[in-house]
Amino acid sequence: MTGRRRTPQEEQYYADRTKMLSECGSEYLADAPFLFANRITTASVLSRIDLFRMVMDVPGAIVECGVYKGNSLMLFLQLSLLLEPYAINRTIYGFDTFEGFRSIHRKNDPKDINEKMFSDTNYGLLKRSIELNDLIRPVNRIPRCELIKGDIVKTVPKFVKQRPELAVAMLLLDTDLYKPTKVALRHFLPLMPKGAIVVLDEVCYRNFAGETQALKEELGLNKVELKRLPYEGSVGYFRVG
To answer: Domains in the chain: how many in total?
Structure first.
């Protein structure tokens, strides 16, 4: 979330949480993260677990477009290592600039966003976290989680051409923006078998209408059975086929 529409109570919550975090060490935080989690974070974790279970019997990659700090991406990695440790045909790909918004559309994206938003991420730290997990995971000679850095509008078409083996079991669209969502749908949908799922993190959400507009243009709303998760505010998904 951008935080640009926080209420005074929410501002107080985040200020108090920052103070609490300053009173504990990093190991404490790593061992007890839900001391500091809120409803939004918990709902996101639960949704990713439920979505992952939906595609456990579908071969192919999990593709996340819009990684930000990597919490969702690394959760998918941990779920895969726990529930399907020897699935050598399951790779988790994360696409992001890791430097904030790019390809903002003048008409279909909000007027009050800018390229600095979501730039507070540490690409090097995320990459090291993946490498750390590679030390102890089964079949660690085969890459299991990869980052693709750059503007999705440019990186996705190039990536698809270079990976003839690529099939996609889950496409998670969390760019918040119109053009990257449209490009991702156009290039990844043909690579998704029946039973795969497409997830839109801000579907039918007026504050980020670009994802929904892209879906309308690429597929049409009456061509898919769009569903929601009851505990999530703006997540929607549909199965391919």
So the answer is: 2
